[in-house]
Amino acid sequence: MSFCQGLWQANQALYQRTLDHPFNRELAAGSLSVERFRHYMIQDAHYLVAYGRALAVAAAKADHADGVVQFANAANEAVVEERKLHDGFMRDFGISAQDFAATPLTPACHHYTSFLLANSWSESYPVALAGLLPCFWIYAEVGRDIHARSQPDNPYQAWVDTYASEEFHAAVRAVIATIDRLAEGADSATRTRMAEAYRYSAELEWMFWDSAYQLGRWPTR
After folding, report:
1. CA-CA distance, 61 to 59, in Å (whole number)?
2. What is the DSSP code string of 104-137?
3. What is the SS3 assignment for 10?
4. What is the pTM of this model?
5. What is the pLDDT of residues 86-121, one digit of tens each?
6. Which of 49, 151, 193, 214 is most buried, judged by most C-beta within 10 A?
7. Where is the active site (predicted)?
């Protein structure tokens, strides 16, 4: 069993809990409220900017040129290409640039992005990547599952199709391969830190969806 396969197995129950979350069940059924989907899109667009920064930091720490290119390209994809996608969906769902700019990060989004940036800056290259992996891998697998369960005439089908695409899954497999290679050469303490970073991000993935479903906001605002 590879290192990443071990991570997936160790966190299988959390992944299943993510699949079973009402946000993802209702997204597949097409019954998710537009208000919740709009909330999610705005926070996801905020998240992607920070995720791109964290990927760029990881690229700078890469142990060889291929890693620099791999994660610099991933950062570009997160900030440029994904935001193009979001812009289209935001137009479709009536979210203006002013609405987006006026909406702050929720506590869950703030927590997740702060963790990813701190982990990428302060930890070693393998640990930084392990913290970034759940956004790639869990998102891809959730997208595949939702795509398989998506009901006819789902108003969110275009969104579902994007994250179930083979191109996205190919990128995920490449990240997994890089992390498995790094884990093979890492000492036990580093592998433990990698597992901890993965688990923390996986928990924050769940919290991100839950926050969208609960229409999370700062309780003091």
Report:
1. 5
2. PPPHHHHHHHHHHHHHHHHS-HHHHHHHHHHHHH
3. helix
4. 0.93
5. 667 777 777 777 887 888 999 999 999 999 999 999
6. 193
7. 205
Structure tokens that stand for 151 in this block:
């009901």
For residue 14, give both structure tokens: 């959390």
Domain boundaries, the chain: 3-213
Q: Is 219 helix (H, G, I), strand (E, B) or coil?
A: coil
What pLDDT, on a 0 to 100 scale, did the predictor assign at position 167? 83
CA distance 156 to 121: 35
Quote the pLDDT of residue 82.
65
Note the pLDDT of residue 19.
94
Measured between alpha carbons, how far is 190 from 119 in angstroms, rounded to an integer? 13
3-213: CATH homologous superfamily?
A: Heme oxygenase-like (1.20.910.10)
Distances (CA, A) of 90 to 34, 83, 155, 161, 170: 11, 10, 14, 16, 26
The answer to whether residues 194 and 11 touch, using CB atoms and an 8 Å cutoff, is: no
Query: pLDDT at position 36, please?
Result: 96
To the nearest 10 degrees (0 to 180), the angle between helices 3-10 and 125-149 is: 60
Query: CA 177, CA 184: separation in Å to the nearest integer?
Result: 11
Tokens representing 30?
A: 């097409």
Q: Which amino acid appears at position 205 of this protein?
A: E
pLDDT at 88: 73
CA distances for 12 relative to 21, 127, 129, 208, angstroms = 14, 20, 19, 18
Give the residues of the chain that fall short of pLDDT 50.
none
d(CA 75, CA 165): 19
Is 167 catalytic? The answer is: no
